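Minimal example, chain plus IPE.
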Amino acid sequence: MNENIPVHVGIIMDGNGRWATERNLPRTMGHKNGVKTLKKLCSHVFKRGVKVLSVYAFSTENFKRETSEVQFLMDLFVDSFYNEFLFLKENNVKVIFSGRREPLPASVLKSMDKLVDETKDMTGPIFNICLNYGGQDEIVDMVKKISLLVKDDVLQIDDITKDLVNSNLYQELPPLDFVIRTSGEQRISNFMPYQSAYAEYYFPKVYFPDFSEKEFDIAIEEFQKRNRRFGGNSK
Ligand code: IPE
Ligand code: IPE
Ligand code: MG
């Protein structure tokens, strides 16, 4: 068996709304089923040997949605972080978040902080949840952090390298090897642009609630067929 497993996988969990609409259900039911799918998928992804899984749960731009949908999602996050994701600790998974805290409600921040705290000593794989995340905002925030360090003479301009940039993003992670976006849309919608400079992309047609463990295995097979060159010669 080809054991070329990507170290860092990103999943843009898209299509919850359409999944529900096609079943004559409210969009919110799509989000609920999305959480169920994510729980099953998470264990499977780590079992396959992936070291870091980043998932796009809510973009900064998603605040443009109807208030009732945003509210539902915020409540769903709180419920999921308190009640649904504790199994991660049993699997030695460390949970981290990427994104801006502002303007997330205090209840959401509290549930995030608790999950992070509960899993902070875990030594296994990393589960990075991108919540109120925007890739361009992440770059702006990184530039501000580094500028302050330069202004305060902690750093010189020449100290700014790709590694320094990477360590001043929301989280310091290895580069993304593989990015999967479900639902058939072929765009990244502001998901981890710096980290995905050399990522392979994969766009399965299924909506996220239907993205099963089997679908993930198919995705990995596809990844293993790719010839990654990183600008060098082809193999
Ligand atoms: C992804 O599903 C979940 C979030 C963005 C929170 P969507 O809600 O975008 O579902 P579609 O794309 O409208 O079907
Ligand atoms: C991207 O999906 C964000 C998440 C999956 C959380 P969207 O549904 O918000 O993206 P667009 O609007 O189709 O680009
Ligand atoms: Mg969508």
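The pocket of IPE (ligand 2) is lined by residues 12-14, 56-59, 62, 185, 187, 189 (CB under 6 Å). The radius of gyration is 18 Å.
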